[in-house]
Design goal:
Elements (H helix, E strand, L loop, with lengths): L1 H10 L13 H11 L3 E4 L8 H11 L4 E6 L4 H10 L3 E4 L4 H12 L4 E2 L5 H13 L9 H11 L4 H8 L3 H15 L4 H10 L9
Length: 205
């Protein structure tokens, strides 16, 4: 319903065309590769691969679209993490549509946009702190982060293997390496870590 409403508003605007929609992070990456959009509106709380994971992969593949994050997460740290990961803008879903348009316009002009609902100085300070400090997730490879998220979302080994088109043995190996690198050896602990590090949120779980 949210996507449908947003699409209706966007398609009524001149100079914009909605070329695709996705309900999870993996599909988002697939459509970006296929459709090569100029702009991507992205949520943080996405199943299988969250918005930060999508941003990270887009940054590595090059020629990625400008990205505006549209999120329910009102914490300054969420905005800082998104901008550090490569987002050009961060807007809250509670904001008026006009604000989203301003963020989109800024992003396409090569500028960054932070919702005025945030204290920009606080966001910038947190961005600096995140850059200078070690990210808890840095000990994991991108694939391990993805599998950790899927485990924390409650998926079993077979389901993860099917979704990623890999063998059960491969998933089990990654899972063992994740636990070893994090020093966490039970699912409850992995869920708590995933929430604390921003990989998933309480509402997504």
């Amino acid at each position: 319903m949210v996507r449908a409403g947003l699409r209706s508003l966007l398609e009524a605007m001149p100079n914009y065309e909605v070329v695709g929609e996705a309900r999870d992070g993996l599909t988002t990456l697939k459509l970006v590769r296929e459709l090569c959009p100029d702009l991507l509106l992205l949520d943080i709380s996405l199943p299988q691969l969250n918005g930060l994971g999508v941003l990270s992969r887009l940054a590595r593949q090059g020629n990625s679209p400008r990205v505006v994050v549209l999120s329910t997460h009102t914490g300054a740290e969420s905005a800082a993490r998104a901008l550090n990961a490569g987002a050009a803008g961060y807007v809250l879903k509670e904001s008026a549509f006009e604000e989203l348009v301003r963020a989109m316009t800024a992003a396409l002009a090569g500028q960054n946009y932070i919702s005025p609902k945030f204290d920009a100085e606080v966001v910038l300070r947190i961005r600096s702190e995140l850059k200078s400090g070690a990210d808890e997730l840095e000990v994991l490879t991108p694939r391990q982060r993805q599998i950790l998220q899927m485990v924390a979302e409650g998926m079993g080994t077979r389901e993860i293997a099917d979704r990623l088109h890999v063998s059960v043995k491969t998933v089990e190996t990654h899972r063992a390496q994740i636990m070893q690198r994090l020093g966490i050896f039970d699912v409850a602990g992995l869920v708590c870590f995933s929430i604390r590090s921003g990989l998933i949120t309480l509402d997504s779980h």
